[in-house]
Design a protein that fits this description.
- There is one protein chain.
- The chain has 697 residues and is an alpha/beta fold.
- The protein folds into 3 domains: 277 residues, 2-Layer Sandwich (Aconitase, domain 3); 176 residues, Aconitase, domain 3, CATH 3.30.499; 106 residues, Aconitase, domain 4, CATH 3.20.19.
- 30% of the residues lie in helices and 16% in strands.
- The protein is built from 21 helices and 28 strands.
- Strand 25 and strand 26 form a beta hairpin.
- The radius of gyration is 26 Å and the shape is globular.
Length: 697
């Protein structure tokens, strides 16, 4: 602006001197407005407000701020008066936008409809990715899903049109990949109705997974409450190389912090090692931070993010972020509540599991550990993709491994599936040949959707109860998570390690040291994969799968049939009678781990996410009863007979009897599905008593 002022005076002098006339606009010193997304050209990034709020808070606290604090406090509803104490006070925040996946969007939109408001107060989107079951391949599975879920898709599309919500049709891709490609940006505060919303932290945003009720608060223009998070710093030094990948960073961190070590905290990555990780690699790390209970995870704005923004058509956002970069990185001398240091140059490839994502092993050790523990070492299926690892770089590194096997006449010994993260990724890897290489090695390309990662998998190669091993590049591996079989031992690792292990067919293979035998009988070793982080050409957007909301949706009709088995308008819960809760019955005392998958299973139950009464028939059916060591078997205190948990709860409700649940540590870890909280209340529950709760629950 100083330069522009000098130019202004030069021009003024020229005018006064009678030299050539120039028109000088008074807005030269104003920054250009930049849209949050090209899908919303009239919704602008407001870094000025972020800067103003940060300065107010910094003056009040009189200390350097972490990046997490800058973005969170920069979105305070009242930065001048808000009480701020990490881990203690509750903050009232104004997020920039909301994103919902189709399974949780049903309940969120039903709640928004009950608010009576005409339109959402902030930019919001719905993403159809959860209801597509993996069965025979991408196109067939997508057609089948559109047919089976037509009622739900129609409800979400019309509700989006009526209330001003953008709608990404089935086949668009996984919500978190779509957000990274189109909506996340440095400094954004985004809340999403999915636990892996933190994926957006790979682009320097504070992106938090919540339940539908929280999303409705934001969409209704009400300040959103969050307990002031602590900040755990992860300092990265060195540089990734060889078989080590960004996935190994979070697998290592999960092993250190465990599934509850991040509860109530934001994980903030910093240090010189950050710049060796691609933007999509940073997203992978942030995505799986959900598995350690973290509120979210975030990386500081850097050149890798700028490169990704440019490649995804958002160079204008990168230019604006450059201007405000001081607010998009941590202050020098800022203090973390805990610091973990990882030397990327020394980090080895990891594989975590089974049955929990924090049981970390170096890949070099897993074969021996599996044999010692009695875990099956033969790999039945390898699965790559998911919201955690489905980027162009991930697919490229996997294809680089597959190409070596093909050159020696080998294909995968295990079944092998590939899930592209978005229509843009699918179209681009098809154009650039990666998809064909992965098919040639024996892979089946699935729909652009969540699929087996969330239990949407019509698995045919085993019977329920059959002990077996699968390896995935997914994020979560709780009991029965992927295929509803409690005997499936699921391990999570990077896509390239999944590919290598699928070619070998066994957990005992270490690609860093072990040899394979080619079709010609000669032994060979796989070289560490190398691939471009972004395509040399522009991304191919593929099919157009976005539905813009109309400017005026007031005339749009949203239909919910009273006889529908998939959708049900909400009725208010009964109010507290003002009396103490006494003489309650214990519905179940849960033994050990009790995740949202135990409380409200996914898989085939996803189709009832918009119908509270029907989905309540899965209440706690996966939880183990401490009385008899069985799942879905509890004693009815009135009849003394054992029966299913939901049936017993309904019996108590019918009899007007209040009941409680007793849980253990970190109750409710995992997904953001608020059904796990709504179902007990719907069936007459009054209190859940545990040693501790997961933050998201």
């Amino acid at each position: 602006c100083k330069v522009l002022v000098l130019i202004f005076f030069f021009f003024q002098h020229a005018l006064n001197s009678g030299i050539r006339r120039y028109h000088v606009a008074p807005v030269l010193c104003q920054r250009a407005k930049v849209a949050m997304s090209h899908f919303e050209p009239n919704e602008y990034i407001n870094y000025e407000k972020l800067e103003k709020n940060i300065n107010i808070v910094r003056k009040r606290l009189d200390r350097p701020l972490t990046l997490s604090e800058k973005i969170v406090y920069g979105h305070l509803d009242d930065p001048a008066k808000q009480e701020i104490e990490r881990g203690k006070t509750y903050l009232r925040l104004r997020p920039d936008r909301v994103a919902m996946q189709d399974a949780t969007a049903q309940m969120a939109m039903l709640q928004f409809i009950s608010s009576g408001l005409p339109k959402v107060a902030v930019p919001s989107t719905i993403h159809c990715d959860h209801l597509i079951e993996a069965q025979s391949g991408g196109e067939k599975d997508l057609r089948r899903a559109k047919d089976i879920n037509q009622e739900v898709y129609n409800f979400l599309a019309t509700a989006g049109a009526k209330y001003g919500v953008g709608f990404w049709k089935p086949g668009s891709g996984i919500i978190h990949q779509i957000i990274l490609e189109n909506y996340s940006y440095p400094g954004v505060m985004l809340i999403g109705t999915d636990s892996h919303t933190p994926n957006g932290g790979g682009l320097g945003g504070i992106c938090i997974g919540v339940g539908g009720a929280d999303a409705v608060d934001v969409m209704a223009g009400i300040p959103w409450e969050l307990k002031c998070p602590k900040v755990i710093g992860v300092k990265l030094t060195g540089k990734l190389s060889g078989w080590s990948s960004p996935k190994d960073v979070i697998l290592k961190v999960a092993g250190i912090l465990t599934v509850k070590g991040g509860t109530g905290a934001i994980i903030e990555y910093h240090g010189p090692g950050v710049d060796s990780i691609s933007c999509t690699g940073m997203a992978t790390i942030c995505n799986m931070g959900a598995e350690i209970g973290a509120t979210t995870s975030v990386f500081p704005y850097n050149a890798r993010m700028k490169k990704y923004l440019g490649k995804t058509g958002r160079a204008d956002i990168a230019a604006l972020a450059d201007e405000f970069q001081q607010h998009l990185v941590p202050d020098a001398g800022c203090q973390y509540d805990q610091v973990i240091e990882i030397n990327l140059s020394e980090l080895k490839p990891h594989i975590n599991g089974p049955f929990t994502p924090d049981l970390a092993h170096p890949v070099s050790d897993i074969g021996a550990v599996a044999e010692k523990e009695g875990w099956p070492v033969d790999i039945r299926v390898g699965l790559i993709g998911s919201c955690t690892n489905s980027s162009y770089e991930d697919m490229g590194r996997s294809a680089a491994v597959a190409k070596q096997a093909l050159a020696h006449g080998l294909k995968c010994k295990s079944k092998f599936t590939i899930t592209p993260g978005s229509e843009q990724i699918r179209a681009t890897i098809e154009r650039d040949g990666y998809a064909q290489i992965l098919r040639d090695v024996g892979g089946l390309v699935l729909a652009n959707a969540c699929g087996p990662c969330i239990g949407q998998w019509d698995r045919k190669d085993i019977k329920k109860g059959e002990k077996n091993t699968i390896v995935t590049s997914y994020n979560r591996n709780f009991t029965g998570r992927n295929d509803a079989n409690p005997e499936t031992h699921a391990f999570v690792t990077s896509p390239e390690i999944v590919t290598a292990l699928s070619i070998a067919g066994t957990l005992k293979f270490n690609p860093e040291t072990d040899y394979l035998t080619g079709a010609d009988g000669k032994r060979f070793k796989l070289e560490a994969p190398d691939a471009d982080e972004l395509p040399k050409l522009e991304f191919d957007p593929g099919q157009d799968t976005y539905q813009y909301p109309p400017k005026d949706g007031s005339g749009q009709h949203v239909d919910v049939s009273p006889t529908s088995q998939r959708l049900q308008l909400l009725e208010p819960f009964d109010k507290w009678d003002g009396k103490d809760l006494e003489d309650m019955l214990i519905l179940i005392k849960v033994k050990g781990k009790c995740t949202t998958d135990h409380i409200s299973a996914a898989g085939p139950w996803l189709k009832f996410r918009g119908h509270l009464d029907n989905i309540s028939n899965n209440l706690l059916i996966g939880a183990i009863n401490i009385e008899n060591g069985k799942a879905n078997s509890v004693r009815n205190a009135l009849t003394q007979e054992f029966g299913p948990v939901p049936d017993t709860a309904r019996y108590y409700k019918k009899m007007g009897i209040k009941w409680a649940v007793i849980g253990d540590e970190n109750y409710g870890e995992g997904s953001s599905r608020e059904h796990a909280a709504l179902e007990p209340r719907h069936l007459g529950g009054r209190v859940i008593i545990t040693k501790s709760f997961a933050r998201i629950h």
